[in-house]
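Sample 3 of the quickstart, ligand flavin-adenine dinucleotide:
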Amino acid sequence: MGAIDTELACIDPAALAAAVTRELDPLVGRIDRGLYPGDALRALGAQGAFRHHLATQRPDGRRDVAGAIDALAAIGRSCGSSAFMGWCQDACAWYVEQGASDTLRRELLPRLASGEVLGGTGMSNPMKYFASIERLALQGTRVPGGWRVSGRLPWVSNLGPDHVFGTAFMPLGPDGAPRTGAGVEVMALVRCDWPGVTMTEVPPFLAMDGTGTYGLAFDGVFVPDDHVLADPIGPWLKRIRNGFVLMQVGIGAGIVEGCVELMRESNLRLGHVNAFLEDGPDQIEDELGALHDRVAVLAEAVLDPADARFAEVLTARLMASELTLRATQSAMLHTGAGGYSLASPAQRRLREGYFVAIVTPAIKHLRKELDRLMRAGVR
Ligand SMILES: Cc1cc2nc3c(=O)[nH]c(=O)nc-3n(C[C@H](O)[C@H](O)[C@H](O)COP(=O)(O)OP(=O)(O)OC[C@H]3O[C@@H](n4cnc5c(N)ncnc54)[C@H](O)[C@@H]3O)c2cc1C
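Result:
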């Protein structure tokens, strides 16, 4: 695909919607049961789905985070698992574009933006560590030309043997003691095929089983200096965190749109009794519209490092989780026994919806962070 096609695809939601219908719709049931849709993700990437937020990868040089969110919603309207994998891809590319490595920006970023290389993000543990929820899982020792990293991450998605992912580790001094201070950790881009990286299958999930999710063991993995994205991580994290969190709204928005469709479809037959349910399609659609407008404003200031801005982003993300839970529950209640059938998308939406609420930052994590920021006087 030439540059002009990519430019058109980048700004044309109809082209993406057509690609979703062609590439994803036929696979949704199989993805739900465990098929990893690598080829479909690459095809969506070729349509420009994963380059909206990457100013350096667009012919117009614009950073359009709202466009990235809308693209994820278009994917999630069909398949929540694929929207999550799209977000993994977007986040991985976002780390590289905002990172310190010119080599990766030059050689890897265009291939991530086009979907040719697929990538993930092992940042749940670091994000929870920064929110004082758990300890940092990876540790690195300085060696000539890079770092030797060891530890385990329980779940990283959108992975395969030749994929990449971003993650963070604690640097240890020559005496084995961790660096001290806030934001002193190191962020790096890791390749799944590096010696010392072991990907292990995880037991089947309730949902999201086709997301290419693996447990990762690091056993003295050599991370060369040109794969370090930030050292120390502090200022970089403040730059990327709004985008990381905000783009997840697209996963929820797509699932909510899918639920609105299901409710409307069900109302054609059962509207006379569904009218007595809360959270009908018009109500949910109105709230999604309001959330969309709020997110579009925040997306314009995505690189703002201020805590006050981050609090607004966390609030929007929390609203997305809560709306997704309500919409998926309501879709089940609207569709009734039909929705309970394993062949129905309603029960799939319910399972996908819970994931929006538990993937980092989970609802409990969001409320903890907002509580901390409020106590610190952040407005
Ligand atoms: C399908 C799926 C895909 C995911 N993909 C990613 C990803 O791409 N990148 C990423 O960084 N994270 C990923 N996660 C993790 C996710 O973002 C959350 O961190 C996770 O769901 C737990 O969040 P929580 O806040 O509810 O923590 P809790 O469930 O409260 O757990 C707290 C901590 O306990 C430990 N723990 C709990 N259960 C287990 C277990 N079975 N095995 C090992 N440790 C455990 C972990 O350290 C966990 O973070 C994925 C999780 C799932 C279920």
